[in-house]
Write a structure and sequence with these properties.
The structure holds two protein chains of two kinds. By secondary structure, chain A is mostly beta strands. Helices cover about 0% and strands about 50% of the residues of chain A. Classes of the chains: A mainly beta, B mainly beta. Chains A and B meet through strand 5 and strand 10 of A and strand 3, strand 7 and strand 8 of B.
Amino acid sequence: EVQLVQSGAEVKKSGESLKISCQGSGYDFTSHWIGWVRQMPGRGLEWMGIIYPGDSEIRYSPSFQGQFTISADKSVSTAYLQWSSLKASDTAMYFCARTMTSGYLDGFDIWGHGTAVTVS
Amino acid sequence: SYVLTQPPSVSVAPGKTARIPCGGDNIGSKSVHWYQQKPGQAPVLVIYFDIDRPSGIPERFSGSNSGNTATLTISRVEAEDGADYYCHVWDSSGDHPVFGGGTKLTVL
């Protein structure tokens, strides 16, 4: 079964660091883009950035530039989203999702279940 | 950067047809993807490349794209179709994805 499994919910304090993960299985992890999406409580979906694990090419949304770091370790088929200093406004659900193929114009056909991050 | 505009809400009676528009500058020249999201769940791809349906998505779901508007059409609407729907394109100038603001479909 093709799936993306995300790490569990996190509760943090402002100023703390955090790294959440998204592990792919059932497919060639290096051949599909992985995107990260933020959904704040009661709000819509917002693209944060995308990574191609095959060569670690990364593109960040202009709306989020510099606020976090996206990375991937293809040896463990896992993509990461990390913050060095969290803010209360980072409180949200974070989803990872993969493109249907290696083409970056594709839709995102497989989504993780989401990681809830709460910052107080 | 590229902007996609969706109405906040659309209402439809069961058995009728719902049309959810997604507006963007010359969006007809881009490939549009649509997602359904129910409360507490991850989004699900329901239409890709304007008109294609992933396996498992009912034939009642269809898409079109021309000029400045792409449209998701749901025929013979059922109660289970009530959800938030988002359109998505890739911004060629920035090489990154862009989402519409989402439309809440209410089945009356």
